[in-house]
Amino acid sequence: MRKVKSAVAICVVMAMAVACASLTKPTKPVAKGKAAYGEYGLSLDWMDKSVKPGDDFYLHGVGGWEQRTPIPEDRSSYGVDTIIGDQVETDLHAIAESAAAGSAPEGSPERKVGDFYASYMDVDAIDAKGLAPLQPRLDKIAAVKTQADLAAAFIDGVEGFGVSPVGLYVNVDEKRPDIYSVHLYQSGLGLPNRDYYLKREKEYENVRAAYRAYIEQMLTLAGDRNARPRAESILVLETRIARAHWPAEEARDAEKTYNPMSLEDLTREAPGIDWTAFAIAAGIEGEPTLIVGEKSAFPNIARIAATTNLDVWKAYLTFHTLDQASPFLAKAFDDANFAFRGKVLGGRTVQRDRWKRAVRLLDSQIGQVVGQVYVARRFPPAARAAAHALVTNTKIGLHQLIDEAAWLDDATKAQARIKLDAMVTKVGYPDVFRDYTALTVVRGDALGNVARGSSFEYRRNIAKLGKPIDRTEWYLSPQIVNAYYDAGKNEIVFPAAILQPPYFDQYADPAVNYGAIGAVIGHEISHGFDDQGRKFDAVGKLQDWWTKKDAEAYTREADKLVAQFNTYEPIAGLKINGKLTLGENIADLAGLAIAYRAYKLSLGGKPAPVRDGLTGDQRFFIAYAQSWAGKRREAALRQQVLSNPHSPERYRVNGIVRNFGPWYDAFAVQPADKLYLKPEERVRLW
């Protein structure tokens, strides 16, 4: 995915094809309107022209915005996505309030939205119930007596509230893309990733101390009189699990994490967990093949399962059940959760308004129900068609770059073209919305609604096994400001939400649209050819279609990009992990090149006008920088650098443009400038 955050959109792409008329059949001009930002889609007041483009292009493009824009107290970060998100939440709020106040028939989608929302908003009823709604789950954990019980309890954590040291999901089989397979992966940590347990610096010691106190607080609220020693035992257990985990950069390797096994193989190679009981509880006991991710971690995790006292496991399961359920429990639990996860890990000082949290809950639980209402109001068919046109035009740019890639053999080029031509484009919303008929939503049962929603989603995915691949399925709802590439289906997906200002504006200058939404589209297309995506062929099969020479040349360039990003230090003493962020960095760089080529083609050989003293190329690159306007609290930034495959925003601008020749030409960047790289040091993959 290009973005990390999510929101809902007011999409105005009715005339998107205007920006690309020379690439598609001519279209009639649209009525003149005013861009949402500035006179032609660019926010000149966001810029800081005192900063030389060649010294810090991010600040040159958005330094004014950075100086004037505080992070709201209820946010861990703030940027373009959250600017959009504020309006999105308002729109969703209106939908939810209307549904809650209406009298839709029992079981209808509108009734589910209204009852779900109203239940979460009724804080008095939630407080009055205390811990009672969760007590049956806690009693079930307390009743664990055997390793088989423990394995089944792990699945309860996967399916509902809680956690398991082994995660599970169903998805397209990477080497047999015509079937679904069960995938198992390392999991089980309450902190963001293994580094939070293993690093010895003071910052992480402080987080661990706060986490230990939080565990104790939650257990105490639940009536545990031995909360302190149990909190210590839970932290010790999770530290052991963390030591077994693969580092994040290794866990993203598509080949290393494809390890097919039978249940018998897993039982033999990772003894210690009752895998048969695990499979029965999960509903996968008949599956002939399980795809194990971090293969060498599993024997260690299983050994931990076998050698840890059941009472410690029960304390662990109890805490994580409380932790995940706390936003839907009485205020004391909710407040404790926010004090740690919101303040300590996220750096926020104020909890978000209840209604904002409510609409986000709707997003996560029944997003396509809300999305169906949303797109009917906000995203007309003409907008969808225009967006498809822009994606088609951007693909032309990559076709040309593939043709011009002198370092590629003809055989590799041919396969790359086949893959690009086969890439499916999904825009706006699903052709078939998800059916939630089987999901029961009860007004007045906030926690029960979430539990049933989580179980519904888990069982819906398990039910895919043995069925044909659903090519209509979307993994994001239409109201999410994000986009993604799915290697197993070889498809790119652009929800309605991301197709709006400042990413796209029907009245904006083409240079601005291509620099912003064009780079988004190029980014997602190029994920099919990043360091992991390139390993999948046109039908989504994990297999090598590169000549040895071309693969080695690609790796050399990719290694140069890793080395560059390894030098960037967003927080003193904490550098970006170039291997972890490689796929996104490649997609950023390739996406910019693809969008730039598409922009040039859109001009039809004519020069772009100069506006406010800015050439077309300058406007293109400034729009790219402004699409990444964003800032984070230090706690949130630290979490991102340690565990997220996306680099921080500033480096997704500065670390990318310095590798792209046309940017140097556009701003006359010189060797004395801080971002300057010698031509032979610049990375170019596409």
Would you kindly provide a written description of the structure presented here, covering whatever features stand out?
This protein is 50% helix and 6% strand. The protein has 686 residues and is of the alpha/beta class. It folds into two domains: 16-24 and 43-91 and 381-430 and 475-681, Collagenase (Catalytic Domain) (3-Layer(aba) Sandwich); 133-328, Orthogonal Bundle (Neutral endopeptidase, domain 2). The strands form three sheets. A four-stranded mixed β-sheet has the order 2-3-5-4. A hairpin with a 2-residue loop joins strand 2 and strand 3 (176-186). The two termini are 19 Å apart.
SSE blueprint and pairings:
Blueprint (H helix, E strand, L loop, with lengths): L56 H12 L8 E3 H22 L7 H13 L1 H7 L5 H8 L4 H13 L6 E8 L2 E11 L8 H4 L3 H20 L5 H18 L14 E3 L1 H7 L5 H8 L7 E3 L4 H11 L2 H16 L5 H14 L9 H25 L2 H24 L5 H13 L1 E5 L17 H17 L21 E3 L4 E5 L14 H17 L21 H19 L15 H21 L13 H11 L3 E3 L1 H10 L5 H9 L3 H7 L19
Parallel strand pairs: 3-5, 6-8
Antiparallel strand pairs: 1-9, 2-3, 4-5, 7-8
Helix pairs in contact: 1-22, 2-3, 2-15, 3-15, 3-18, 5-13, 6-11, 6-13, 8-9, 8-14, 9-12, 9-13, 16-17, 16-19, 16-21, 19-21, 19-22, 21-24
- Which fold does the CATH topology of the largest domain refer to? Collagenase (Catalytic Domain)
Mean pLDDT: 93
Number of helices: 25
**Basic shape:** globular
Features:
Neutral endopeptidase, domain 2, Collagenase (Catalytic Domain), three-stranded mixed sheet, 686 residues
